[in-house]
């Protein structure tokens, strides 16, 4: 017995050491080179997200719908006057928040109240308007469609003017804009999934990129640079770490695409738990997700606000076409005729334009945190600002 038992212990010890070494190697590699598991048009997640790390709270990513605190994904989230606000990574003030900004934050819950001390905002594209067409723009190679109720800064709407666009991406990478505002002079900025265009170059949307590593292909990244000779000469690249680190529970506004039981975000990440969802094709939703022990993402509950069917679905761009299913455009750049600011964009009678939910519907799975679905409605036309 003794002769048999000791070798087994030695083998077990060796096996345990090997497993620990392998796990440490994988963890180190994951830390060096995180994978893109971005949620919708909003973000980048590591393959095995932080489960809590003592932070707790609910990670929230979504569009500001109203003030009086901020209303995001149906939750009223309070913040102090000295809350830390960053827009595109740069320090800003609470007074710089606008209805239509897409925010990322960690909300701490106390009973039915939610509070935060840090608010992150990241605009999908900052650059010059290249073309204007009905209910949309082309900005730095990105097709931009206006959501119903989108806030458009009146002075920002002319070809050549620098603008910053906030919104969510469809699976075909069109940006559904909730806010278009004037931007100060500076570097051009793009946030999106790096793809290979029909001519073999790396690109985000229809904007070719130069000076970016091949390793970024398929990743959702933030790039900055200057446009030269039709390409964006990239001077800085960063992973779009958008979902806040720390929470184990997230409430995210996004576009999803479902085929059978497979549900993917706009950046291509797969979410588990899609068999019972009430739609096929593309839908806009507020989805509650958490991480599984296997490092995947699982849907806990979901509420759709708009179903689009095949519209906006991911597909390969045709050679010579900058956008999938792109409508014809003016041969020469021009301003949009007969546009009112801001209520004329994407109204109920528009032939195009995407809905922006005030109160989502169609719950699936467990209920959302207490207080979901309240919050009130956005204010009248114009760029909203925080109340005092």
UniProtKB/TrEMBL annotation:
UniProt organism field: Methylosinus sporium
Taxonomic lineage from the root: Bacteria, Pseudomonadati, Pseudomonadota, Alphaproteobacteria, Hyphomicrobiales
Chain residue ranges for the region called Disordered: 306-388
Residue spans of biased composition, Gly residues class: 368-388
Official protein name in the record: DUF5666 domain-containing protein
Signal sequence interval, chain numbering: 1-29
DUF5666 domain segment(s): 127-181
Keywords, alphabetical: Signal
Residue ranges with Basic and acidic residues bias: 308-318
């Amino acid at each position: 017995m003794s002769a048999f038992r000791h070798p087994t212990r030695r083998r077990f010890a060796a096996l345990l050491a090997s497993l620990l070494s392998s796990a440490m190697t994988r963890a180190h590699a994951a830390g060096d080179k995180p994978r893109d598991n971005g949620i919708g048009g909003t973000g980048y997640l590591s393959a095995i997200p932080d489960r809590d790390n003592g932070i707790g709270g609910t990670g929230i990513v979504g569009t500001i719908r109203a003030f009086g605190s901020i209303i995001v994904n149906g939750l009223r989230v309070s913040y102090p006057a000295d809350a830390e606000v960053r827009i595109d990574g740069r320090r800003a003030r609470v007074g710089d928040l606008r209805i239509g900004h897409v925010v990322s934050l960690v909300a701490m819950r106390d009973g039915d109240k939610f509070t935060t001390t840090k608010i992150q905002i990241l605009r999908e594209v900052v650059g010059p308007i290249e073309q204007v067409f009905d209910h949309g723009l082309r900005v730095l190679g990105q097709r931009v469609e206006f959501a119903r109720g989108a806030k458009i800064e009146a002075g920002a709407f002319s070809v050549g003017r620098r603008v910053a666009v906030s919104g969510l991406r469809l699976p075909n990478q069109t940006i559904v804009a909730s806010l278009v505002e004037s931007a100060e002079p500076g570097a051009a900025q793009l946030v999106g999934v790096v793809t290979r265009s029909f001519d073999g170059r790396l690109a985000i949307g229809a904007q070719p990129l130069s000076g970016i590593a091949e390793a970024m292909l398929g990743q959702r990244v933030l790039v900055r640079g200057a446009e030269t000779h039709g390409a964006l000469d990239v001077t800085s690249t960063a992973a779009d770490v958008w979902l806040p680190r720390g929470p184990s529970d997230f409430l995210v506004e996004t576009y999803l695409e479902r085929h059978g039981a497979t549900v993917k975000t706009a950046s291509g990440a797969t979410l588990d738990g899609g068999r019972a969802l009430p739609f096929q094709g593309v839908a806009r939703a507020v989805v509650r997700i958490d991480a599984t022990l296997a490092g995947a993402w699982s849907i806990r509950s979901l509420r759709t606000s708009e179903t689009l069917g095949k519209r906006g679905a991911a597909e390969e761009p045709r050679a010579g076409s900058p956008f999938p299913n792109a409508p014809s455009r003016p041969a020469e750049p021009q301003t949009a005729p007969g546009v009112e600011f801001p209520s004329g964009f994407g109204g109920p009678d528009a032939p195009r334009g995407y809905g922006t939910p005030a109160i989502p519907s169609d719950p699936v799975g467990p209920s959302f945190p207490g207080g979901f679905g309240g919050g009130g409605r956005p204010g009248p036309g114009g760029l909203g600002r925080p109340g005092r």
